[in-house]
Amino acid sequence: MPWFRTFLWIGTIFLMIVLGAKSFSLKSKQVSTVEAFEMASRSEAVAMLQSWKDVSVTHIVVTSIKLDYLFVAFYVLLMLNCSSHQMNKERNLILNNLLRFNIALSIVTGILDIVENVIMMHNINSIDEFFPTVVISILKFAFAGWIIIVWLVSVGKGALSRKAYA
Predict the structure, then answer these.
(1) Contacts of 141 (CB under 8 A, 6+ apart)
(2) Domain map of the chain by residue range?
(3) Separation of alpha carbons 35 and 117, rounded Å
(4) Over the Cα atoms of the chain, what is R_g?
(5) What is the pLDDT of residues 55-66, one digit of tens each?
(6) What is the pLDDT of residue 166?
């Protein structure tokens, strides 16, 4: 379904822009972003929360985290769709199996992102019971990066093969 993949690309890019604008608005007020909060230690998180309260931007942070749930749905479906589509075209057995693995890894990546969001909301609402999300964030970003690299290698290999035959 090329229309669905196009819809997922547009939705993912649109949400990246919206979330980026929200991050920019936090930076323009000289406070930490949600991404920094993901990687923060307890003491850093306490300072971030206080700075957000001081300049009244906690609502932007909470809205960004809530919007991230929609972003997760879009980017996970996009990774699933693109990996599955490419897997059906890929003739190299190793790349085909890596693309197949991408499908499972996409789901794990989405679950990690959701868990991270739930924990961050908990940390915002109850900093005394802080739970770090840095390991979850690193795994999520590493898995997403791996998925993208495998997909790009397969797409690039396919493009080079078609060019060689032309």
Answers:
(1) none
(2) 2-165
(3) 11
(4) 19
(5) 999 999 999 999
(6) 60
